[in-house]
């Protein structure tokens, strides 16, 4: 018996966030909407105006609902939505649109577009940067009203609870907000394992399958969809027997999760008594309760760019300070490594979109620390550093710079910290004078000069997501070349081994914080290469810990000795799998 009349369709994609989800699809269109334009008869004027008012009223109601949900969460968002509601009723918008419909005899969508264009032209001439940026708010309001006029869903951020969201792609900002809507799964045409969308899905434990190329052409809103985020399987209109089979698997996974959870308080100690540090990667302090529950020993990477993304208002010094303090308080004495904002490429903020940089290769462009040191980002960087330094007086905190290409960039970033420290001292504001300043190693130029960088950085964190991207010249979010995105490529292992050695020689700590740190099968490789600290999505902590507790550092080092002689990633993977299976055999033998 089939749950639906339509035949079952099974597709294989990249499983990027484990878990089984079953629910109704909610399809988000690929294109941004265009306002249809046509002339109308004089008799239709009143109907068009009525349509416009109806869409405005519907938009107002939707915003009021969103606001209800946000009320206790985030005050600034709450106020922004109130401002959007006011815009909806502004005479300059509605009155002008009505005027166009009546006088030019055009449809409501066109009239509204013309009224919006008039307003945004005025915004373009405003000198004040903050006010000029409000143009995007007008567009946001327009988009919602237009969707209501066209009877389309009102955007990617309002799927019904428990929906499986299906999209060509999702921006990291969309994904970050989707968890609040309590969606049960994500399915996309585009994307790779370390796309930020995938990372966020893992952080919020939303099962997700990406890289399905054209799944949006095969799924319609309200279709029943089943996804297995570990295996990367998506089944549209599953038969009853298929659903039963996956429900069984779901029960098995929940039971296995409970066993791992019971290891929370056990040390991450290998069988030959080497203690390792397992930290978590977070996008905000709200994730910490769960992270600690999974047994994370602190924060190895706080991606602060999420304070910028999807927020019309940019974070100021106070926001950075409050957020970092909240983080330290929730950690109750455990350490936090806070990365200064890593914006650019696929991680956009309103000020960057407004700057319209027109870069042909944004992944190689004005992003990350380069942006912070440029005129465009410098003031924002300084206010973040002021906020973080002030917070450093409240608990064990380190500051980390992303995408450092070499020693001169590190010196430039440290010079800004010195400038900010001098300002705070002059103002008599407390901060930790000895706050550690470290760097992400995520491009070959940094890995290959790690010995030089180690003389001037207090610690390293290897960002393998980008290190793989830049070493293999493979876009981390491009599904066409994802087969080349290989953490176990011999080039990567040489770079990681080299960085670990440089750090050890200089006596500074080194962590791996890219997604490969959270893959239990890869843990023996990283440990064999000399890594002793790993930072990952909190959900991966128990599994990685279980792996570490079953192995021996000496064996991992011997494994690396053999791996070094191999020429391809596939050969490395096969040898590492053999080792991991031998551990499973030993575990059984001991049981
Ligand atoms: C990385 O590149 O490995 C990393 C951890 O940074 P992000 O994923 O935020 O680019
Ligand atoms: Mg990175």
Describe the protein.
The chain is α/β, with parallel strands linked by helices and 591 residues long. The protein folds into three domains: 9-25 and 168-257, 3-Layer(bba) Sandwich (Glucose Oxidase, domain 1), CATH 3.50.30; 42-150, Enzyme I, Chain A, domain 2, CATH 1.10.274; 268-590, Phosphoenolpyruvate-binding domains (TIM Barrel), CATH 3.20.20. Helices cover 47% and strands 12% of the residues. The protein contains 23 helices and 16 strands. The strands form two sheets. Strands 1-8-7-3-4-5-6-2 form an eight-stranded mixed sheet. An eight-stranded parallel barrel has the order 9-10-11-12-13-14-15-16. The model has no long low-confidence stretch (mean pLDDT 88). The site of magnesium ion has 4 residues, from α18.
